[in-house]
Specification:
The chain is of the alpha/beta class and 141 residues long. The chain has a single domain (2-25, 40-133), classed as Leucine Aminopeptidase, subunit E, domain 1 (3-Layer(aba) Sandwich). Helices cover 21% and strands 22% of the residues. It is built from two helices and six strands; from the N terminus they run E-E-E-H-E-E-H-E. Strands 1, 2, 3, 4, 5 and 6 form a six-stranded mixed β-sheet that branches. The chain is globular, with a radius of gyration of 16 Å.
Length: 141
């Protein structure tokens, strides 16, 4: 398996598996009406609209809560060059939780790697690619 850290427009990345981190911010009890059911508000930690729209059905259904290390795999996401999109949940936005989520993504990819010419999963495929989107921050000085 080849792991790459790429800084590019996510919809144009051609890869076997694109990993995006997601989290659900804490809910405020003051903003919820008493008779209204609370829907989870899952947020992706990227600003790419193509990825957001590809994941909309899962994130808005309430089925995926983006809990710590919770994953959901989307096959052939619409509008993306990636063959699969993996959402990995975070319980908090801190470096330790992000490190844990990246470890989950790597283990997920290792167990489900695919060969270049074969659609069936195999545990030790060479040439498979895991792409982790990276948006460099500008440093305040």
């Amino acid at each position: 398996m080849k792991t790459e850290l790429i800084s590019a427009e996510l919809s144009s990345i051609s890869t076997e598996l694109l990993v995006v981190l997601a989290w659900m911010p804490p809910r405020s009890k003051n903003h919820q009406a008493p008779n209204q059911e609370a829907k989870p508000e899952v947020r992706l930690l990227i600003t790419d609209t193509a990825v957001s729209s590809a994941a909309t059905a899962v994130t808005e259904s309430g089925e995926y809560a983006a809990a710590s290390a919770e994953t959901v795999l989307l096959h052939a996401p619409a509008g993306l060059e990636a063959k699969r999109l993996l959402l990995v949940g975070l319980s908090k936005l801190n470096p330790l939780e992000i490190r844990k989520a990246v470890g989950v993504a790597v283990r997920f990819a290792q167990n489900r790697a695919t060969c270049a010419n074969c659609p069936l999963p195999c545990p030790a495929a060479k040439g498979s690619t895991l792409s982790l989107p990276f948006a460099p921050r500008s440093r305040a000085r």
